[in-house]
Amino acid sequence: MKAVLATDLSAASEATIESETCLNCLGRIGVEEIHLVTVIPANVHAGMPGIDFEKRRKQGLNRYRDVIESAGLDVETHVVRGTPHRRINGVAETVGAGLTIIGSRGKSPLENRVIGSTARNLARTTVVPLVVNRIERAADDPEVIREHLFQRMLFATDFSANAERAFESFSYLRHATQEATLVHVGTPKDPGLGEGEDPEVELDALAARLEDWGIETETDVRQGDPADEILAAEAEFRPTTILLGSRGHSRLRRLLLGNVSEDVVARADGNVMLVPPERTA
């Protein structure tokens, strides 16, 4: 599998690249080739006073290449200009990537704005599964918050087609996953289940599939606001990564990314993996 790893050469994005544990987790799920992508915004120019982009870029990318290659992964680098999330998606499509990874410091809209806005925009538009790797905030030398990316997964499902597609990610995540918690949040109108269907039975069926792969699994059915309850489950179970589909039930284009996914990406304490729907021709 090829993976795109987006970096703005900041300390936050560097933390993901320099975490040996994170790189090992990627290797376990079948990633063999990393495509490092750094995007120069269209309004930034090398001739701007006090900015030596070329030197900084070469130094950063060469250092990152050494770290990734020492973890046994092949590396390609891409330096492109334009709107970050569009160019990152473009590279992912061009190289046939199966995963995109980006570091994010999380909740504050005032800190690390460039990579933060890029993570949010990628969450809305990603064409391949996206891992938002949560980085420490308010630290000069930040580290990733939970290094073992896929060791303990919290899978949130509304039983939609996209949620099922997200669950199928366990076919490769299982090589790095030891524990999983499967969560469904019921709401007054739950279009994910037909009349007479029981969410606990549905979750038990999914759990059985994971347990066949040797993953210790538990289920949790909740009631309330989906985003709030998923984040409450994160606080209770302390997963390394929350896994969910990036689209809800709405057929309206402006609501293709359900508010649940967007809220979880913005508010989660740890890592989040979003799986978009399968693209149609």
From TrEMBL:
<feature type="domain" description="UspA">
    <location>
        <begin position="32"/>
        <end position="132"/>
    </location>
</feature>
<feature type="domain" description="UspA">
    <location>
        <begin position="150"/>
        <end position="276"/>
    </location>
</feature>
<protein>
    <submittedName>
        <fullName>Nucleotide-binding protein, UspA family</fullName>
    </submittedName>
</protein>
<dbReference type="Pfam" id="PF00582">
    <property type="entry name" value="Usp"/>
</dbReference>
<dbReference type="InterPro" id="IPR014729">
    <property type="entry name" value="Rossmann-like_a/b/a_fold"/>
</dbReference>
<comment type="similarity">
    <text>Belongs to the universal stress protein A family.</text>
</comment>
<dbReference type="InterPro" id="IPR006016">
    <property type="entry name" value="UspA"/>
</dbReference>
<dbReference type="InterPro" id="IPR006015">
    <property type="entry name" value="Universal_stress_UspA"/>
</dbReference>
